[in-house]
From TrEMBL:
Extent of Low complexity compositional bias: 43-61
Xref: Pfam families: BTB (PF00651)
Chain segments carrying region Disordered: 1-61
Domain BTB, chain residue ranges per copy: 67-135
Record's compositionally biased regions (Basic residues): 17-27
Protein name: BTB domain-containing protein
InterPro entries named among the record's database cross-references: BTB/POZ_dom, SKP1/BTB/POZ_sf
């Protein structure tokens, strides 16, 4: 077992305005096509030998005298076990353990709304300071990537988990980010956001479902994950327009995502207009 240290902050916050891009002629929403995929980052054609990310110092074994806590996760009540001193690194679990201080039959925490795969990643992070696929840094190219050894050669493909709440897939890193917010683990939030930025080949429907999930499980003050999705949709607006998925989601409504997207698009157009009028 291992302990972790806090990750370094690695990502600048998104501005309220989306990234600039040249305007393009708008096409009709009626030009639907089958499910399309978004490339959020082009993988490097040639890879140099990477080094492991300094996400944590050399881990040490947990206190063997620490009590074992049982965690019951999800509707299927899948059981996990963890050392209390490791689990208590998350303020949420520390409080839950303190509430059972006088419990004689062993401490147990129930997480009926959590997904086992997501909690497994959270627990791995608490022990090791990272979760699979591991984040590594390529010094030669000065860029971050995900470890191929953890993903059977598909490090930058779409990684999703089935969420029982929405009855469909969401991006795994988005689900981990939201759970990290719930458990008060800001360093894990930053790590999950960093990994999500390395994803590519994600379907439009998965992006929109994950954006909805992010809006439902983060506060309105969140300036990281929400802004990530707004910028991603705006950058890939031509693909979303042709897919028809965005139109269907907007007609469905029920999320603040679409008003925020409207504001971000207006800001984006204002930036383009202002740039065109400025003297050169």
């Amino acid at each position: 077992m291992f302990t972790s240290t806090k990750n370094k902050s690695y990502r600048d916050s998104f501005s309220h305005r989306a990234g600039k891009a040249t305007s393009k002629k708008q096409k009709s929403f009626k030009e639907y096509a089958p499910a399309r995929k978004i490339i959020t980052q082009q993988p490097s054609p040639v890879r140099s030998t990477p080094t492991k990310s300094p996400v944590s110092s050399s881990p040490a074994s947990p206190n063997l005298n620490s009590a074992i806590v049982t965690i019951c996760v999800g509707p299927a009540q899948r059981l996990f076990a963890a050392h209390e001193d490791v689990l208590s690194k998350a303020p949420y679990f520390a409080q839950a353990c303190r509430a059972q201080f006088f419990e004689t039959s062993g401490k147990r925490i129930d997480l009926p709304n959590e997904e086992p795969e997501v909690f497994s990643a959270v627990l791995e992070y608490l022990y090791k300071g990272d979760y699979m696929p591991k984040l590594i840094y390529d010094k030669k190219r000065a860029s971050w990537l995900l470890d191929d050894a953890d993903t059977a050669g598909n490090a930058q493909g779409e990684s999703t988990v089935h969420n029982n709440g929405i009855g469909g897939p969401v991006l795994k890193d988005t689900a981990i980010y939201c759970s990290a917010h719930h458990y008060a683990l800001p360093d894990l939030q930053r790590l999950a956001l960093k990994k999500q930025g390395l994803a590519s080949g994600v379907q439009c429907s998965t992006i929109l479902a994950s954006a909805r999930y992010a809006y439902a499980h983060t506060p309105a003050s969140d300036s990281k994950l929400r802004a990530h999705y707004l910028a991603l949709i705006i950058r890939s607006r031509a693909t979303f327009k042709r897919s028809g998925t965005l139109q269907a989601e907007m007609e469905r409504g029920g999320s603040a995502l679409f008003f925020d997207l409207f504001v971000a698009m207006v800001n984006h157009l204002d930036d383009i207009s202002g740039s065109a009028r400025s003297p050169r």
